[in-house]
Amino acid sequence: MRLTLLSALFWFALDQISKWYVLYQLDLLTIGQMEILPPYLNFHMGWNTGINFGLLANDANATRWLLVALAFVISAWILWWSRRMQKRISMLSAGAIVGGAIANAFDRVIYGAVADFLNTSCCGFQNPYAFNIADIGVFVGAFGLLIFADTKNMTP
Description:
Layout: H1 2-25, H2 28-31, E1 33-37, E2 41-48, H3 60-82, H4 88-111, E3 114-119, H5 133-148
């Protein structure tokens, strides 16, 4: 369980520190866009009041608190499940999901929306969406659990 919590703390801190640096030190809040390694990596400021790709963003206030609650419920379930995990990679993956989910929930509480700023494009494809480090943690964690989960311990 300790490894899961350390992984969650790592992803939470990495996300929040990166947002603080990009938003306030690089002043992306004011600038709005910054080319870092064009076209592969750019910073594009975005506020997501919904879920992925802005889905369910119509009633931002109701969605905000529903998604905060959902993040905590799912994180609690993953932490409970992780107590039975045997593989270190599974524990790290579970922590990545929890850390990313809690980091985005923290944004919703503080800002009213999730701060997204990473934008990647390649090979003639112009990606209109932005994401953040917490999203990467959730994706990496979900992929890790999908591939490396302790299958005999899948049921809670």
